[in-house]
Amino acid sequence: MKAVCWQGANKVGVDTVPDPKIINPQDAVIKITSTAICGSDLHLYDGFIPTMEQGDILGHEFMGEVVEVGSEVKRIKVGDRVVNPFPIACGQCFFCKQSLTSLCDNTNPNAFMAEAIMGYSPSGIFGYSHMLGGYAGGQAEYARVPHADVGLCKIPNGLTDEQVLFLSDIFPTGYMAAENCNIQPGDIVAIWGCGPVAQFAIRSAFLLGAERVIAIDRVPERLQMAKDGGAEVLNFEQVDVGEALKEMTGGRGPDAVMDAVGMESHGMGLEGLLDKTKQAVRLETDRPHALRQAIVACRKGGTVSIPGVFGGFADKIPMGAFMNKALTMKTGQTHVHRYFTPLLEHIQKGDIDPSFVITHRLPLEQAPHGYEIFKHKKDRCIKVVLKPGQSA
């Protein structure tokens, strides 16, 4: 089959690799009909996530049709149309039973690698380094899905791939990030970043009752998409974000703030240059400019939500502001399985059509071009969907 493979920092290729097979009786194999490039894939592309190996198959946002199931798979059948959550969950461990599926104890065979950095390991994740399991990803023609009865989510008739594909990651991620803001009626939420996750976080914050959402970015098309979703917007290259937020909130600050950027945020001036330099020479793994700003800007007693991916260690976090202002921080890889049914209902009721975020649709063979325009924000690119088996 054809698959998108990591070939080193800033290089991916579409290679011919062996077809996936049933390894465990709880496995399924799906023929992928749609897959996407995620913002967190860029951390792999840029070479900032350790334990990647040349030839690793990328991708954790994918869906398709079941073509084979293991002998112990009961709920999922050949021919089912399914979406696949990006974290892999066993369904039986302490964390899975609490619907904390991205913390599953049993799906990362390389847990020792993650434990060396984090103390304990999260779940395995498709296409996201050997530290998180070494699982082949879904930017491919086929994929093996472990624990298929737990993970695969059946799609009802009448919904297109583009309406449901993002239930695999970015829609639940944006929703959980907004839920983590503990939104109360009348609240103002400020979101750093207007990428795909942030676009869903904006709309989710309104679904959960926020009165105002303020979105911060510098890319015109992303700011416009945020405005289309009801947000007020700030271009961080044109205004002092902290002062602007004070003015927009009557001097009190946002009730909740969200870092939807993560480890590669773009800082301005000396601070931004210092972060980039330290990251380049591995004196700092993450660039936390957006997180620093968010913590300082949040009102006293407010909430800091972090859906943006961080990989290791970040410097100069304003812990004095965090502690003295009595802030609450909530974060984590998304427990996608928990959100699938309620978010599917929102789609079916017409509350949201997730396809709004797609700007580019490409054949799988054009994935290297997709990565290039997504990373560098060329051609007004916000979200790329890849279609295996489709010609240019």
UniProtKB/TrEMBL annotation:
It holds the Pfam family ADH_zinc_N. CDD domains: FDH_like_1. It is an enzyme of class 1 (oxidoreductase). Its EC number is 1.1.1.-. The keyword S-adenosyl-L-methionine does not apply. Its cofactor is Zn(2+). Residues 25-156 form the Alcohol dehydrogenase-like N-terminal domain. Signal peptide: none annotated. Transmembrane segments: none annotated. Gene3D superfamilies: Medium-chain alcohol dehydrogenases, catalytic domain, NAD(P)-binding Rossmann-like Domain. SUPFAM superfamilies: GroES-like, NAD(P)-binding Rossmann-fold domains. Residues 196-263 form the Alcohol dehydrogenase-like C-terminal domain. The keyword Lyase does not apply. InterPro entries: ADH-like_C (IPR013149), ADH-like_N (IPR013154), ADH_Zn_CS (IPR002328), GroES-like_sf (IPR011032), NAD(P)-bd_dom_sf (IPR036291). GO terms for molecular function: oxidoreductase activity. Keywords: Metal-binding, Oxidoreductase, Zinc. Belongs to the zinc-containing alcohol dehydrogenase family. This is Zinc-dependent alcohol dehydrogenase. It comes from Scytonema tolypothrichoides VB-61278_2.
